[in-house]
Amino acid sequence: MRPPVQRAALLVAVLVLAGWAAAWAEQPAAPADTTGSAAADTTGAATAFGYAADAEPPPLTPQLLEQLLTALADSLAAEGISALEIESEVTAARERLLPDVVEEVPVSIESERLFFNCVNNPSAGVQANVMRVVYNGRLANSVQVAGGGRITDTYNWGYETYRRQDKTVETRGVQAGYESGNLLPVRLNMQVGRDWSKDVTTNTAGSTNVNQRELWRGGVAANKGPVATGPIVHRLTADWFLYDQQAVNLAQRNDFQETEVSAALRSGMRIAEGVQLATRLYVSKRDGESTLAGLASPSSTTGDSLGAGVYYGRQRIQGQFTVTQSSFDRRFLDFYRNSNGLIDTLNVPEGASKVVQELEEKDALSLAWDNSVRSGRFQMTAKLEHTFNEQQYAVSGVGRRERLRDAMALRLTAPVGRDSFVLDYKYEWSWDAQQLLGAQASLGRQYRKVRNFSVDWIRGVFRNTTLSGRYRTELAQDIAQNAFNENDRDRLVEEARLKVDARWPRRFTASLLGEYQRIDDVSIRRSRSANNNARRTYEIAPSYRFFISPNVVLSQMFRMYIQYQDFTFAHLENVNKDDSFNKRGNLATTVTVKPSERLEIVVKHDFNQRYNGTRTGRDAAGRTFYRRDQAQTINRIELGLSWNAITWASGETLKLQSATYRTLDTVERFGTTNTLNERYSGELWLGATLNRKWGSTASPLNVDARIKRVLAYGPNVTNTSRDYWEADVQLKWTF
Amino acid sequence: MKAMTRPTSAIVALGSLVLLVLNGCLFDARDPEPPFAQAIYYLPRVSAENIWENCRLAMINRDASGWDTAVSENFVYVPDSDTEQAYPQVDWANWRKAAEMEFVSRWFASNVTIEADLRDDPINTPAGSGGLAEWELIYLVAVTDTQTGAITRYRGRAVLQFTLEGSYYFLSYWRDEQGEQDPDSGATLETMGRLRGAFGF
């Protein structure tokens, strides 16, 4: 396990990093960047640790997030950035900021009343499909208390019955909570709850297992902040919870009663304009008694986590650097486990108990750097990550495991004239190793290396016509250090694609796609290499959509694939492998007709034909000959109807729907005796969708229902899937 | 001589970068050792039956490459509820091809030998129609720890789907329903979900 000196070194590294950031920040700041990107990221960095540059910022609510993202998109559009890149930027910003989003807490002006705004939300529903039927009910109540407080209580009930299995699951839950709001110097959140579940499963041999669990949980969480000490702003949380579980599975009891105490301190400071430093410290301790299969023993878990990050967003450069170290020790009762970490009570060493007192220790370190630089219309982004963790068991046969992963991702976006390029390079290097319990040496490292390079290109050739291309290559390598492991292999993928798209909105669209792919599977060890092969695939796919009239649309797509599989060592006498080919053609035709505003009819036909063959020889001119082994033809016709029967208001409709399909699958095998198999399959379903609201806006009753009855036939159909209901019905009332 | 325009220069620079990458040795596979053993005779991937047999061959030979070839890029695994409860730290909701290959690579790299009867009780294993075959069966897998000689058996009832994608059939869906009884001892065994939980950490 990681010694304290290493943790100290990590802390020093964080301080050095902070010093570097401070020094860097002392440089004269560039003129304020008005782009939404910089604004969004600065806000994200600030809110990530509850710190603002000049004033306490408003909480990042979902509405504020959307406003920020819209501003980002608008500013990028104003710079002439392509829609594709804008979408990419907005998605990246959304991912960065989402963890910081908080639900808006309504602030009431009726603070003179002790209790107000009592809201009750009963709901009930049923979901059904071919696998199971689920019934559920829920009652949630909340009432606001003077000073921003809130009292809540929730009751849940669910019952599942399985159609294919002899199995039922019942769940019940009750939770109650109180949030103190601003009444006290700290915000208190008290909770108590009970979760109960019972799973009764009878297997094919008639043996029944009852898996029942009841968990009580109660405690209080205190939150204080922000508190400023000089330029540093802190947020402190402290939790205290009790847990009491009574459970039984496979006739073995698994009970525990434990107390958990935890605390977290998050601090942040502004180093300079657009640069923030944030740190996190978290510690937790859980203690108690546990009982497993009749054996009782003390149990405990101790954990801590230390993290720091520097977040920056200046004129053309933005990003973040984070470092986190965490560790925990856990003492608990467990069943005896073998070297693979699997419960193995049948092979317990002689004289040993099948239940053991286990000690698990785990340390983890992660470093990450994200950086984005923009210069004119060029943008370069880089992501570097390093993670390392080690895990050790005192009794389990697993012993000690170590895992390391380094990853790098570089992206260059370069619009040049009428062309746009995106270059991507990714590299990952990782390994894991295991030293079995009691072994003198490690089994050896299993390395994995993955390199991936891709170029995307798009060019507007004429008005309404674009030409795009993509090239990608990837090499994935599994490398085994020691001889016992034969899993030592490379996979090289290379693909190129060219596509022309022409679009005349509401009249005609067409595209033509050509693609080539080659995959080389290479096993390195001689015990595996006989299967080494290369697969080459060629594909061509033209398609069009013709808007014949405002009510009739015709679309067709044709795809042709041809694949060759060549075995690398097929020429050797001891390798009896035959090269093969496979050809497949597919023509899909769809006609959509809307005879009226309410009715839509879709007719679709899909024709699919493929051949498999084996190489029989090659002539003096180098021509290769193949023998046809199998031909398969699939014809499928579909008809769908959708009728909007009633529209009460926007989003409130009753829709009747129906669809049917029929498939004929013909397989012909050639050989000494030719065989022909014809298999029909099909389905018919009838259903309705209802979305309706009753009552006033303040206390509406909502009904969202989707129901359909499915009738099916064919070889895949069983007794439970021949005739069944699919449903998702939910009733919700607020008052 | 006419000077190149700025966009042309940029295209030339980007093209040079691409060529530099392509011509380098970054994307060269290693040279394999010539085979001395008979190949594993995988069957042509023209039916669900062949794919399931290929899965068995990959399993007993601990050949991750064979498993990779049999499993769809859109693969989904759904564990039985006991497994889901036993391994809450595993992201079961997102168990796709990448997670499956990570599990298989680690499992096959461990110090074990594997015996498998993947059609121990073929409850319903049709040839399918329209490029889809849905099976329900009970499989039996025995894993022997080479170091200790201890044998752990897994027997589970599962629903499988095989789909025609591109030119070949693939295993695209695997849902373990429940553990089944050991035919020898009568004890209720666990599903292969336990292996996925232990190696997919």
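qc> The mean pLDDT of chain A is 86.
qc> done
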